[in-house]
């Protein structure tokens, strides 16, 4: 069979789309597909009254009955369905009511309860509840009998226009065996017919009805959906005991819109079941339950077997309520809760769960999956054997044709040679052998040597018995894709059309089994592989193959076994030519015979004129789909009566002109002579001048292209797409007598989707349709934790069109986006996106609103838009998608900060939207440059869950302040200590906060450290107590000195003779009194200051405080006497001295309280007055000496020397000495203390009196 066509994925559904498989990335939690709990489905029921369909209540008895039936079906999935029993008809007079409903936004249960049967009523008849089983004997399979209360007959206006006709009982699966006596019932569950209304209850007068547009869609779509997948249909037919082949499933966009319009996850109308996008998942556990519930409604309406509801005008819609939490974010199915301890790398399907199998994700080098069975076409299932593996992803390099021919030649050759020699009597040695096969119109001819004809007989072109033309492929019984051996024992010749039609369904069947198994297994696996990964790369083994339902078996003429070759049945296919046929095949000068092959094959006759010109225009082949081949020029030169083997002519023409699938092709070929046929030629391999191009898919590479004289170009090639999307897809192009065919079954894993798209299932099938390439199926994908989507056939593409065109949609997480659905398309190698994403309030923490346009390329998915935060004063930011192959998809946002934010000059918020335990939020890093004078540096922080927080330690220098500040900005409320610990401000306002310490230079000599804070408006304010050193020098020490009196006295001392001459010696004594003082340094001690300083408003700065202004001072008075000796002549020198000295001093400090008040305008002004006084006594000490010498030129002669030691004495009493001075200091002015500012107090001393008395003592 066509083992070449091996691909994988989901089961295909006519007039619909393949089911969407729900899965998650490796290692993540599973997602089942549909609702859980009570489904509250909606059903459409026929009603006599005209008008739109009514909406049934989500919790009325019919819904509860369907819920119960669905539960029982799934619990008993493994049970063998028992024989059915006849169904009881409804109780006499019972009619089905119109159910009373309320608005979908406020669904409530029907009021009222069944009324007890009055005594003597004669028994119970059906009311609300299950129809009693009145015909099934005890212990026999049948519905579970539930007593129902009787009541008054229903009102006339509550009757349905049609009463279900009894037609047979649906068996019921037995619930768990109850305690106590009573029969145990078993069998598949039958949903009970819809119960009549309770006694006395009339339908509501204002029954809610579907909108007009939904009603129009329901009418137009009736019966046009896809049938149930075969496996699902078989299972539910067994469970419900009803044929379900007329059920139609709708899960396209229109069905999704209709479901949303009535607030439903799914709803049923007659035999049509409609699903919200993503809810239809017949392979998943929850998806099965939803489908079981909806099918229960189908059966509820028709207790008879295969009974269809005729009219739909006033039907009641049964809908699966949209209020239940049936999906997670992004439309993902609700999670199947599996305890962690039950998860692991190995899982085996438990009894009752189909398909059966075991997966081991830990097996090396890749995981393994063993499945119990797979459905193949019957003829293939009969020969593939058991325990076969599935081969994918390997390049095929088989030699089955070569092996077959070598393996049968020994049996075929003798038989065929014998026949040819007997059927060609009288053949001359230089003449070819002739034979034919088939039944004519046309025959296949065999012309040539024995070896040449034997070679063709190795692969006969006739069925057994030789009466019928047939084509066969050399096929592996166990296919190459099943690891079948490339050996003669595994080969046969099989019907070409059946063989080539089987490869794709086999691949799809294996994919479908893997996907169905993974839908059940995924929640239990850890780590969890993607289903697409398992389909594409796991080692998959199937225990056996079973016959697919409805598939054909093998007929007697479908195959040739090795043992059949060379038998009479084989040789019988060759027939002898008649003489007229032999004459015609040799041709003539006016009739050129052209054959397909060098051995003959089919032939075409073209007229030639007497000059040998061939009438090429007579060679024209058309088909229903247009022109297949038109010869434009044929040349021929006869090689002579014996024929020949070389080139004897040429042919050119146009093939497939105006074809809707491929471009026009110019064909050329040589005409080759044929031995023994002077006016005949065979065609060489054709040459395509510019190759072949498939519209929308690009070049074709052929393995075996031929030019058939009747059908034109014939062969099979591989399309080599230019499109990156299809780069890895296996697409075949088939040329035959009917035109062009495209064969491709492309699994999702074979598509190169943009980076963040992860395939979750599905398959595309390409074919050559009316108008061009036809596409069916779809590929499902997801962007992990963000979106789900699909891409498939475009509306026009289903009918065919010149280029490949796909359409689909991306559904983003509705927990994040308010506008989440985008249209998706692919055409001419380019992706397109329709629509715009939008985020509303409350969807993403930190974002008030956002919108973005999405762009899809071959490589990635990007988005560009803008968003608004709740931050007051912040402009809109940009929003985008970013994809990293290593980390996956992320939504990023950026805002340029500055305008409107207090204290910020510029900056940026670069954030990412992330999913956390509380939902989605915008979080990221913030960098900003402060706009506070004096602050330098960059602040950094974060924005998360709507909370804005930036903080940094910055340098500060401005005016009199210099230091460090911890500065921050937040939208949280501040606590008492100024820290952002409170709730996010409702108005979104941003508040600056922070503080630090700075050195504050109030004056050049008054500096200290003080606290600093950042005001909510983003300004710096210095406020608080200043930390100061113990003392401050206000001014340095100032020294002053004053001589208050002076005296001079000459005192005679002695007469001395020198050189016989008497000389008088006298003393000159001078003296005086000097006073001096030192003031300072002036100091502030024990200062305490408080300051309020705002660099932005420096003139408003104030400094207040107190301290002690201390000015140390000292003063002194000195009395001194200095004397000198005089001599009368130069040669005599005399030295004498009198030293009288005495002094008194005082030292102390002026201390006064100082109030310090400072402003930039006034500075500091300090005023004080200091006084220092003392009443000392002077103590004098007096020494005197006289030394007279003569200088005699040669030597110095001491003439006189005398020293007196005079005793000291005290002088004076009550002498008052001191000073008083004023002190004034102003900021910005130098401190200047002059002598004039000092007021001295000192005693009146007369040095003359002191010296006079002293001299008398000396002289005397």
TrEMBL record:
Biased composition (Pro residues): 178-198
Transmembrane annotation, as ranges: none
Signal peptide: none
InterPro entries assigned: eCIS_core_dom
Superkingdom of origin organism: Bacteria
UniProt domain eCIS core: residue ranges: 227-304
Region (Disordered): 1-53, 77-233, 303-360
Pfam assignment, any one: eCIS_core
Regions of compositional bias (Low complexity) in chain numbering: 130-155, 166-177
Biased segments, Basic and acidic residues type: 9-27
Protein name (record): eCIS core domain-containing protein
Species: Geodermatophilus obscurus
Organism ancestry: Bacteria, Bacillati, Actinomycetota, Actinomycetes, Geodermatophilales
